[in-house]
Amino acid sequence: MNSKTVRTLHLCAAMVGVTLVAACASTTPKAEYSKDLTSHYRIDADDHAQVNVSAGTGVEITDLEEQRIARLISSDLEVMRLHNVANNDPKNCVVEVTITRYQKGNAFARAMLAGLGQIHIDANVKILAGTSNEKLADFTLTKTFAWGGVYGASTSMEDIEKTFASGVATSLTGQDETKAAVQRN
Questions:
Q1: Domain residue limits, the chain
Q2: Architecture of the CATH domain 33-179
């Protein structure tokens, strides 16, 4: 092989590597729904949701971090719910997000070796009827980031919080189910 072919192969390999790496931090986590409810609750365009975020027992997270996550979820939810058709029956609900694991990891450890210094955000999410507090749905959501090298070191907890919030909003609005339905057709 000549040097031009070798350079082209290296460039292609680098582009594939960058594409794979870039997908991890921005990959939206999928909800794992509780088995006790027969249907998934979906927030539509004319519905209104109040989002509350709190720490579970033993979880170290500041009030500012809880507020930031709540803002991110609310913001994503406002945008994503508009993709759903209004059903002319506006409902109010309360989304209770209980953070069960919040670990910022260690950027230096991630830079040294993939898998070290991982970032984790796990939560239990309950959707309650706004007036009666009846549980409409619940699910768990887990987001882990474990890439190494420069990418691992440069990815922050705030980056992962954005992806986590998007995962919550996607699950609440059924966007993941909608995409799956579109792909089947």
A1: 33-179
A2: 3-Layer(aba) Sandwich (3.40)
